Amino acid sequence: MAHDTVEQQRADAVSNLWRVPELPIAILSFALHFVWEFLQVPAYEGMATLPHWEGIKTCTAATAGDVGLALLAFWTTAVVFRSRRWIMHPRPPQLALFVATGVVLTVGLEFYYIEVTGRWVYSELMPRIPPFGTGLTPLLQWLVIPLLVASLSGRVLRGS
Questions:
Q1: pTM higher than 0.85
Q2: N or C of the chain: less Cβ packing under 10 Å?
Q3: At what angle do helices 136-158 and 52-81 cross, to 10 degrees?
Q4: Structural domain containing residue 153
């Protein structure tokens, strides 16, 4: 009988872990941003010609940063709307803040890394959006993926 209790406690702990909103947001953000990072490789100078393992490490590092931005956007929205559970049934103002936070951070970081430090360089394939010259693909990334993450995370947390 004690074995059933231990097994049930483990199952409950795993189930409770999935109720923490940050977990599905982080996992889904990682999966979706990881794919996006590889798809936009040709839009960054030198990425397509990197050795395979270097390219994977670079895209993985960028994806980890994207997950951090997604969590920061989530927490910003949670603070403003006074609930971490907003993601279960997101309303348009919450989604707008979630996406806008990611877009603002992306525009700032892209400007910093492209224009200030030169750490990244866009290839000739990257369309640039005024006024800061932000690349189209990272901007679209932060318009599309957060909406998918919010929708899928809400479903995971609701259990549907």
A1: yes
A2: N
A3: 60
A4: 2-158
